[in-house]
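Quick sanity check, Ribosomal RNA small subunit methyltransferase E:
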Amino acid sequence: MNLALLFDEDFTASDRVKLTGRRLAHLHSVIKVKAGDQIAVGRVDGAMGTGEVIRLSDTEAELTVTLDQSPPPPLPLTLVLAMPRPKMFRRVLQTCASLGVKDLWLINSYKVEKSFWQTPWLSEQSLLDNLTLGLEQAKDTVMPRVHIRKLFKPFVEDELPALLAGKRALVAHPGTEVPCPTHLPEAAVLCVGPEGGFTPYEVGKLEEAGCQAVHLGRRILRVETAVPVLVSRLFDACL
Ligand code: SAM
């Protein structure tokens, strides 16, 4: 937690917050703060700044906060991700939030196991908790929006074309001819496949919608590795 993300319910006055639970435990056991210390704070979807600890107990920490700095700019990327295996999903979600992805579409694909959609990590609270961890790690406040689409074809045919309008559209697919571009000067939409990859039919549908298939070299990376590699390759100037 390089920044404590503050929610409306934490505020007891416009410049005062009380922290409990996970954030309090972190202040005690990791940062080991004492009264008078300052920590980085930020209001969700708002400004960042500093919080001064004015009172600390086993049950809560009270801070006065000054919020006068802008969060880092968002990554100009819409990420379309085939739903990962639950064990990996939580980490991917945190990584996306840390990298500055603000628009994440979780889609079905032939090789996404049906059971993946049952994971409790998809509950609204779990999504919020994990995105919060990712934002706190990276010192950002702007909560990513997550869209869930459990049918591949209607998403690709009916919704994807509008998402691609005016943007560079790519599908990461091993073994294609075109290397993934670097230093993109424009906003992009990037599709990343499941553990077993997109099927040829799915790559064809994504290409029909306007995506260009690109590769990252001969090494096939896990989704949790491929996402940060692709993002840093496309947008190194933004990181
Ligand atoms: N056997 C699968 C295949 O050949 O498509 C491997 C899938 S990989 C574990 C999961 C996803 O990460 C891929 O669908 C792709 O979107 C992305 N990816 C991983 N390595 C890649 C590479 N070398 N080039 C392009 N995309 C890659």
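Posting the structure with no commentary besides this: The pocket of S-adenosylmethionine is lined by residues 172-174, 192-193, 195-198, 215-217, 219-223, 226 (CB under 6 Å).
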